[in-house]
Write a structure and sequence with these properties.
globular, about 20% helix, about 160 residues, 3-stranded antiparallel sheet, alpha+beta
């Protein structure tokens, strides 16, 4: 039996036992440990927590815990486990930070964690929304211009 472990961090991958590989242009390629230090120097810093400040407290959230991000009235709000937290980042900044974690800009005011999406729902002839897991009453809007891109990404 073979075990494959994946990581967003090259450093973590190289520290694990076994043979390290990387995905390059859609193909798995072995990483030769002679190149270890060169690769570590090239690896960009990956932010793994998103902060939100409430009064005098700062909360740090793992990206996988965030269901969606919404921009409303010039403020950015993060939805985590049915709670809403204000965030100092703009939606564009969060899109840059969260894209590698599977977040998708589904609407000009929404960024959604696609791992939390359960269903693409048609509301009207040209209107769609995304139903999120474990959130019965919450539907995130899907912009008309994004449906074709989403269809292509997920083959539906």
């Amino acid at each position: 039996m073979k075990l494959i472990t994946t990581s967003l961090s090259l450093k973590s991958t190289l520290l694990l036992p076994g043979n390290p590989y990387t995905l390059y242009q859609g193909q798995m390629q072995k990483i030769y440990t002679d190149d270890y230090f060169d690769l570590l120097r090239q690896e960009p810093l990956i932010y793994t927590k998103i902060s939100a400040k409430v009064e005098d407290k700062v909360f740090l959230f793992d990206p996988e815990d965030i269901s969606y991000v919404e921009a409303q009235n010039s403020k950015t709000i993060i939805s985590v486990r049915d709670s809403m937290f204000p965030c100092q980042y703009t939606l564009d900044e969060l899109e840059g930070k969260l894209k590698r974690f599977g977040f998708y800009r589904c609407h000009r005011s929404y960024l959604v964690n696609m791992q939390k999406v359960e269903e693409v729902k048609k509301w009207t002839k040209n209107s769609y929304s995304l139903k999120l897991k474990n959130m019965e009453d919450k539907h995130v809007p899907l912009a008309k211009g994004r449906i074709d891109e989403l269809r292509e990404l997920y083959d539906f």
